[in-house]
Write a structure and sequence with these properties.
An eight-stranded mixed β-sheet has the order 5-4-3-6-1-7-10-9, sandwiched between helices. It is an alpha/beta fold. It is about 25% helix and about 30% strand. The two termini are about 15 Å apart. It is globular and about 40 Å long. It has five helices and ten strands; from the N terminus they run ββαβααββαβαββββ. The chain has one domain: Dihydrofolate Reductase, subunit A, CATH 3.40.430.10. A hairpin with a 5-residue loop joins strand 9 and strand 10. Helix 1 runs parallel beside helix 3. One of its GO terms (biological process) is riboflavin biosynthetic process. This is Deaminase. InterPro entries: DHFR-like_dom_sf (IPR024072), RibDG_C (IPR002734), Riboflavin_Biosynth_HTPR (IPR050765). One of its GO terms (molecular function) is 5-amino-6-(5-phosphoribosylamino)uracil reductase activity. It comes from Agromyces fucosus.
Length: about 180
């Protein structure tokens, strides 16, 4: 049985998407990016909303660019090898292999995917993750916390949800980014 993991870069004040601008320090450096690659190596299926998919599909063709560092190519290979499900009512087609579109999030179908999977699953994007959280499907939360306070946007955790979590891992990176991994109780 696979675990469902929700992970995003988030601002210090808890926003996964800033109302204006970006979230500040992120996964741009080798240390952080290598850590993320290692942390998500066991993910065999990514669940995306349309906007997150449109951001992540970059990995499908990054190897065609000149002078790409080895750690970027390694992550791209693992991303391309994974299954991807995009939940969207508007996306007409996908531009990556091993990808399918679902028109609506179906909690029972995701529960079945988890039960049948030999690998972990990752739900990415705060709006899609809110649906998985509300359905009680998320097993782990991986927060990559920047040093920026952005003052508004879309929160990492949805409003109206109470979760009791256990901190199981933490790490500080040289660029100021903090990592915290939690299990649901």
């Amino acid at each position: 049985m696979g675990k469902l993991i929700y992970s995003m870069i988030t601002s210090l004040d808890g926003y996964a998407e800033a109302a204006e601008g970006d979230l500040g320090n992120g996964a741009e450096d080798e240390e952080v990016h290598t850590f993320i690659g290692n942390a998500f190596r066991n993910v065999g299926t990514f669940l995306y909303g349309r906007r997150m998919y449109e951001t992540m599909v970059f990995w499908e063709t990054v190897d065609a660019q000149p002078d790409v560092p080895k750690y970027i190519l390694e992550y791209a290979d693992e991303w391309k090898a994974a299954q991807k499900i995009v939940y969207s009512t508007t996306l007409e087609s996908v531009s990556s292999e091993k990808t399918r579109i679902e028109r609506a999030f179906d909690a029972d179908a995701v529960r079945e995917l988890k039960a049948e999977s030999d690998h972990d699953l990752s739900v990415d994007g705060p709006n899609l993750a809110a649906q998985a959280i509300a359905a009680g499907l998320v097993d782990e939360y991986h927060l990559f916390i920047t040093t920026s306070v952005v003052g508004g946007g879309t929160r990492f955790f949805p409003d109206g949800v109470r979760l009791d979590l256990d901190l199981v891992e933490e790490r500080a990176f040289d660029n100021g980014l903090m990592y915290a991994r939690y299990h649901t109780r």
